[in-house]
Amino acid sequence: NHFSISVESPLANLHVSGNNGLLVDSSFDISSTENAAIEGPGTRLFFHGPRAAIRAGHLDGSGIYSGSAWNTENIGRYSSAMGKNTAASGNFSTVFSQDNYGGGAYSTVLGGLFNNAYEHFSFTLGRRSNAVHTGVFLWSDSNDKSNTSTEMDQALIFAENGVGINTNYTYETIGITNYPAVLTLQGQSVLASNIN
Fold first, then answer.
1. Between residues 178 and 112, which one has the greater pLDDT?
2. By the number of CB atoms within 10 A of the CB, which of 60, 63, 165, 168 ranks highest?
3. Do 145 and 128 touch, CB atoms closer than 8 A?
4. Which of 8-12, 74-78, 104-108, 111-115 has the weakest average pLDDT?
5. Pairing status of strand 137-140 against strand 80-84
6. How far apart are CA 160 and CA 180, in angstroms?
7. Is the pTM of this model over 0.70?
8. Spatial separation of the C-alpha atoms in residues 123 and 140, rounded to whole Å
9. If pLDDT is split at 50, 70 and 90, which confidence band does 89 have?
10. pLDDT in tens, 99-108
11. Which residues contact 109 (CB under 8 A, 6 or more apart)?
C-alpha cells in the first residue's frame, strides 16, 4: 500500500511532497510511560516525542542491549542514535555508526566501531575507544585493540604511527610545529626548539 500527500503517484509507502517540509509534533513529558511504537530488533526511523529523541538505522539483536537499545527504557532524553546497533541511553547523548554506545549524559560517539562513552561529557571515536571516566576525549586508530581512559578529564589519542600537531610529520611518537612549543614528558616541561 502507498499513501501520499500532494502526490498523485507515490513512489514509497509514504510519499510527501511540498515546499513546507515535514513536521512531526509532540510534547516532551518525562513522566510519560508511553513506549516507542516498535521495540526490539528491526530497521526503522522514529521520533520518540515524550523523550524528544530520534533513532534511525538497524538493530540486529546483538550489541550492548541485544536488540533492545531502542526500547523506551534505553532511550535517553534529548538523545540521538543512528547507524547499526547504536545505543544512546544517556540524556543529551549522540551516537553514530556501528556497535557504539553513549551512556553518559552529554556523551558523544562520533563514529567508528565498538566505541563506548560510558560517563558524562565523554567523547569517543575510532575503534574500541572506552571512556569510563567523566570528561574524557578518546580517539583510537584502526587497530583492533581496546583503549580505555584511566582517570577523569583526559584527552587520549592512540595512533600507531604517531601524532602530528600542525604538521604531517609523525615518524616519531609526536610531531609539533609552531615554535616555541612546550611539551610535558613524564611530568617534566621541555621547551621544544628543534623538533620536527
1. 112
2. 63
3. yes
4. 8-12
5. unpaired
6. 26
7. yes
8. 11
9. very high
10. 999 999 999 9
11. 86, 94, 95, 96, 97, 100, 101, 102, 115, 116, 117, 123, 124, 125
* Inter-CA distances, 57 with 13, 95, 103, 123, Å: 18, 12, 18, 21
The rounded distance, in Å, linking the Cα atoms of 149 and 88 is 20
CA torsion through residues 21, 27, 30, 33, sign: negative
Instruction: Classify 168 in phi/psi space as left (phi over 0), alpha (psi -120 to 50) or beta.
Output: alpha
C-alpha cell, 51: 523523550
Dig out the grid coordinates for 116 from the structure.
563506548
- Residue 12 cell numbers, joined: 514509497
Residue 177: predicted pLDDT: 54
Task: Give the C-alpha separation, 84 to 100, whole Å.
Answer: 8
Read off the pLDDT of each residue in 120-149 and give the average, rounded to a whole number: 97
- Classify the C-alpha dihedral 186-190-194-196 as positive or negative: positive
Question: Strand 94-98 to strand 80-84: parallel, antiparallel, or no bridges (unpaired)?
Answer: parallel
